[in-house]
Design goal:
The protein is an alpha+beta fold. It has one helix at about 1-40; strands spanning about 40-50, 75-85, 90-100, 105-110. It is built from one helix and four strands; from the N terminus they run H-E-E-E-E. It has a four-stranded antiparallel sheet, covered by helices on one side. The mean pLDDT is about 85.
């Protein structure tokens, strides 16, 4: 019986994580990423999950995993691959967006390359 409860809790936590990820990414798309792209000559073609242990195209040190937050930080980062093209669709390229959240509120969105 204990194994079933443990499996149910793990499944629930994983499901909540996926739900929070989808909500945060959709809110970032709606309020940050799409308005930023509309100000430039680029059009969003697609976006995708960058992975659990990757920082995408950012030129930074490797991702470190620790049992506790660094200095008590509550900032979490979600990385999303953005596939964008020019307005006339002559070239398509990939960039990474870093969505920083504080307790599931989006605080900042950064891009691996400049948009303008």
């Amino acid at each position: 019986m204990g194994i079933v409860i443990f499996g149910g809790v793990i499944t629930l936590l994983f499901g909540l994580s996926v739900l929070f990820y989808k909500v945060i990414v959709s809110q970032a798309m709606k309020y940050f990423i799409l308005p930023a792209l509309q100000k430039t000559k680029y059009v969003l073609k697609d976006f995708g999950f960058a992975g659990f242990f990757t920082i995408g195209d950012f030129q930074e040190e490797a991702l470190s995993i620790r049992p506790i937050s660094t200095n008590g930080s509550v900032i979490n980062s979600i990385y999303v691959f953005l596939y964008i093209s020019t307005a006339n669709a002559t070239e398509t390229f990939r960039m990474t967006a870093r969505i920083e959240t504080v307790f599931f509120w989006i605080s900042k969105v950064e891009y691996s390359h400049e948009l303008g």
